[in-house]
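step=predict obj=Exocyst subunit Exo70 family protein n=596
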Amino acid sequence: MEPPGNDVVAFESAEKIILRWDSTASEDAREKMIFAGDRYEIDRYLQAVDEIQRSMEFATLSDDQNKANSAIQIAMARLEDEFRNILIAHTTPMEAESLTDSSPLPEEDYEDDSPLTKDLEHQESNSSCSYRPTNSIREIDLMPSDAIYDLRCIAERMILAGYLRECIQVYGSVRKSAVDSSFRKLGIEKLSIGDIQRLEWEILETKIRRWIRAAKVCVRILFASEKKLCEQIFEGLGTATDDACFMETIKGPAIQLFNFAEAISISRRSPEKLFKILDLHDALSDLLVDIEIVFDSKSSESIRVQAVEILSRLAEAARGILSEFENAVLREPSKVPVPGGTIHPLTRYVMNYISLISDYKQTMSELIVSKPSTGSRYSSDPNTPDMDFAELESQTPLALHLIWIAVILQFNLEGKSKCYRDTSLAHIFMMNNVHYIVQKIKGSPELREMVGDDCLRKLTGKFRQAATNYQRSTWVNVLHCLRDEGLHVKGSFSSGVSKSALRERFKTFNAMFEEVHRTQSTWLIPDTQLREELRISVSEKLIPAYRSFLGRFRSHIESGRHPENYIKYSGEDIETAVLDFFEGYQVSQHIRRRSE
């Protein structure tokens, strides 16, 4: 042990250095920062602090203890200022180099060119850049190594002197301000859950897109890098000091970040929200492993728990929305017939909706684990279709839900078809709509795979049956005019044709065909191929029958007076007129005649 005299000399020398940098007593000390000077002066001051702390352990007289306490308080106040100054001085580069421009961009043009986001994109394509045993986290150096060394030197002495709380508070205050600035640049706003839930959904859709991108940057780069900085400065200095500083910095911003997703997860459910909720669910699910790595301590458990609970609520919201969507399709009340029997807006909406669901097949298959809650057990309810799920045991729960939606959509459409006064138009309406359902299923490989060929065959059979029903309801009576029965006078089969009956038959045919032409040219079959197929089918029955009838009885009419009043159309005229059918617009009141 050194002689007491040497201790006194060492203490007085150290005290002199401490007092010289007392900013409360010296103008020069207030204007200058020790750690902004040369290394020699920095080391002298740190050694002086060490000497004061050492002397406190051996001080026995109260005067010596008081002098040491006074010196250490002055030193700690100074080191706190130096600590804050170093942190502030080395916070600016993070904002300038690593964050995006703060001006908001439309969602379709939103491109984040910041180094932070570029780092994220780079590491997603090149996992070897990761510092952690994960393919997604990418820590970046927030401060130069010499600044980190100085901060650690100061923190070590403040903690040893019992100033841990002050050290953590200074660190958290400065770094949290930096994180808040990063949040602003990434477009993360300070909104309460109530604020978020009051926003219009169109606005929220844009914010969700931006949040997903920003959340990846925050968790994988910003938070991870802040944690790394805490470890570089505080690791090994006391019990979990690095974690305490990390949480002091990050807890508020992390809660702010995840509150947005939480607000969406508990917001009012509606069908249009499903896909953004699934986007949020997928993004948060992808981030969950990274969240567990970044927030791996006991003190940050609340962050991990919040993320898991939000994920669970988003999953429940998606399931609830699907169930509510099914009920809405079944109960959709509109009874105003769509003009021309074309595709109902409900059909387009529902089929586009389930096509989008099939795009989220993987996520939805994980979330939907039970079959629809309606079906054959409601078979006695006239307002609900019957569906035997036993026939579809091999299908996944998600596939059953999609098939069920197609079933209840048809059921609803059948109710709407009854609003047409013209039975033929009701059949055209069903044909159009079920055909659209089939085409949408065929047009999506994922949807087709889930629905299955058996269901697709049944749907195809239904729209073909509707086409057959249309032909029967429209053309049976028209073709009935072209039969021979009732035209012959009893007694002479070969020449006994009743001209009056024949003239009446031609007049009836003309009137009926003209009415069909006038009416059904305003009907619409929007699918070109389906329209052409139905015209061909009509022509194949009508044209040969008319030509045959005309061939057999033309001479009987032409031998009489004013034959043009009865034989108004040639076979070619009828064939041309059929081409006007199902175009969806009013044609001339008169059928075009090639002879005109």
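step=describe
Residues 100-134 have pLDDT under 50 and may be disordered.
step=end
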